Amino acid sequence: MATSSKHPTRAGSQARQLNGIAERIVLAARAHFFAHGFRGVTMDDLAAELGMSKKTLYSQFPSKTELLRAVLLAKFRSVETDLEAVVTDSADDASAALHRLLACMQRHTEEIQPPFVRDIRRETPELFQLVEERRRDLIQRYFGRIFDQGRRAGIIRKDISSELIVEILLGAVQAVMNPAKIEHLGLEPKTGYGAIVSVILDGVMTEKGRSKSADWGGRSRS
User: Fold this and answer.
1) Do 193 and 105 contact (CB within 8 A), yes or no?
2) Residue 20: is it exposed, middle or buried by C-beta count within 10 angstroms (0-12/13-18/19+)?
3) Which letter, b or e, does each residue of 185-210 get, where b requires 16 or more Cβ atoms within 10 Å of its Cβ?
4) 3-state percent breakdown (helix, strand, coil) of the chain, nearest 5
5) Which helix (H) or strand (E) holds 45?
6) Phi-psi category of residue 51: left, alpha or beta, with phi > 0 → left and psi -120 to 50 → alpha
7) I need a labelling partner for 26 at 20 to 30 A (CA). Which of 37, 38, 149, 174 fits?
8) How high is the pLDDT of residue 110?
9) In percent, how much of the chain has pLDDT > 70?
């Protein structure tokens, strides 16, 4: 009986340790993949930086593609957590919610460099599709909620439905935020997203919304 009671505790401790190892690997891979691209980073590089054997690395992630999948899922969990906080904490102030949403988006895109966007589509098209699906889901859920909030507050035009605004935003993101177009236009992900949203918001904001947006811009600079 004594032996069996100790075994679950030991197993639980080992599981927590393995989760910690996996988390370290994902954090290191995220920094390198997003900055240098998928092709420019090897599992040898990551193992050496983390001070662990390749055997340990591969025990957590059987391939570099599986590691990239884990990195992307962790990134989207982080984005979703931050977006949920924006819409929850600014539920009574549509202008503040919109301002915080744009700041959140810029913060999350500035770590992603062009080589990563280029490589993920060329090397792992199935994961590029995952990115597009998750991106669409997040835009529909969170931008849609804030556009609804903005219409009620009078800062977003009421003659255009939130659903249509979201579809226009999604269409622009899909058309522009792909490797070939980014390279052709000389954009980085953070500048591309910012430009798309700014152009669309300029078309759907009311005068009241533009006034509040100018106020927030002034606060940001002060």
Assistant:
1) yes
2) exposed
3) eebebbebbbebbeebbeebbbeebe
4) 85, 0, 15
5) helix 43-50
6) left
7) 174
8) 85
9) 87
* Distance between CA atoms of residues 210 and 120, nearest Å: 37
pLDDT in tens, 73-87: 999 999 999 999 988
Per-residue DSSP letters for 154-205?
TSB-SSS-HHHHHHHHHHHHHHHSSHHHHHHHT--HHHHHHHHHHHHHHHHB
> What pLDDT score was predicted for residue 215?
57
**For residue 16, what pLDDT is reported?**
38
Domains present along the chain, CATH in parentheses: 2-221 (1.10.357.10)
CB 69 within 8 A of CB 127: yes
Q: Cα–Cα distance between 67 and 190 in angstroms, integer?
A: 24
Dist CA 199 CA 181 (whole Å): 17
- Residue 206's identity, in one-letter code, is T
Whether residue 188 contacts residue 196, with contact meaning beta carbons closer than 8 Å, is answered with no
Q: Give the pLDDT of residue 32.
A: 94
Q: Is the dihedral of CA 50, 54, 60, 66 positive or negative?
A: positive
